[in-house]
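Example (one chain per record):
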Amino acid sequence: MTFAELANKGMLTQPVYEPGKPIEQVARELGLDPAGIIKLASNENPFGPSPKAVAAAEKALREANLYPDGGYFTLRQKLAQKTGLGMEQFIIGDGSNEIIELLGHAFLAPGVECVMHQAAFVVYKLVTLMFGARPVEVPLVNMRQDLPGLIAAITPRTRLVFLASPANPTGATNTAEEITALVRALPPHVILVLDEAYADFLESPPDLRPLIAEGRKVICLRTFSKIYGLASLRVGYGYAATELIAILQRARQPFNVNGVAVAAAVAALDDEEFVSRCRCENQAGLAQLGTGFKRLGLEYVPGQGNFLLVKVGDGAKVFAALQAKGVIVRPVKPYGLPEWVRITVGTPVQNERLLGVLAEALRS
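Predicted structure:
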């Protein structure tokens, strides 16, 4: 028998996530100098990691021979202090992506449905399919999430509803009032998964802690990959009711996050000056790119994450043209948006270079 014949049936048709191309790969493929390439494709922090996080990681690396604390006491304690929640209300993951998968282990199976938006973060759909469940995709309305549409799509088979605010790849947000209304409208057999990966870029993100305290079925996901600049270390967390977190802990692998990453995350939480500076720089970068897109006559979604979605005509061709000039962006055809590309906010110099190269690509 072949491996394909031995494999679980669903694995043969399981879509594969395609990350943004790394600088080294583009340099090899195109014969470019890596030092001259800028990557504005994966919504990474162009200002690097928190200096406090780097120092803590270097210290932790000296004890790399030891297993990390499998309960992640120090990180959960720090999160509890920062949020006013209990330590038992947090689960630590190998990025917030792993927690999405843990939700699949706990709640998804054939015959179950997950509701999400079209052009939502593709991992929601990938995890749903991985567990044999059915993704139900609700159309965007003017490139914004349609929360009443999510409610209308719920059936007795629905277990999870995915919502991101700001959303990836559009960057659009929903108000606290809109999200609260969504949570209160959920039937008792449905859990809302609120992806807050980009919430740190907002001055006042919606706060769902009161709804969790009410006993509403909601879990919020956060990551250290974005504003904290720790994407390479892969660490994130979820917070919810103690009962829900206890179920997810049963699905979590032992030592699922390495000790260096955890040490960096703990230190990063205390580097409030770094986070504040990155938030301000990001707001300025959004304005810089938005002004540039308007100057070029391009339609874009006025997002509030650390990226903008811009309509360029043929997304694949523009992506290739920019990459040939050493500027990596993200084509979003897999999200059903072939005319658009997603561009991460870079430093002021990187943003200006992107706009110049983009103008050349559009002229050609």
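Caption: The chain is about 40% helix and 15% strand.
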